[in-house]
Design brief:
It is a single chain. The protein is of the alpha+beta class and 61 residues long. A two-stranded antiparallel sheet has the order 1-2.
Length: 61
């Protein structure tokens, strides 16, 4: 499981959940990415989501 680094209180958190041969990026905001065979791609999905949707400035909404 991959956790978001540098979390502050009430900050959203992304994780990687493994289901058989697949990995799924999930966020505490309710978002989840597509099932991926490559865990690195699921980690990239989580990083993209965290950057785009949960930026410190709140610009991603």
């Amino acid at each position: 499981m991959l956790d978001s680094a540098g979390m502050r209180p009430r900050q959203e958190r992304t994780t990687i959940e493994e289901k058989g041969a697949f990995a799924i990026a999930r966020c505490t905001c309710g978002w989840s990415g597509p099932a991926r065979r490559a865990r690195s791609t699921a980690r990239d999905d989580a990083a993209t989501h965290a950057t785009a949707r949960h930026s410190p400035s709140g610009a991603g909404g």
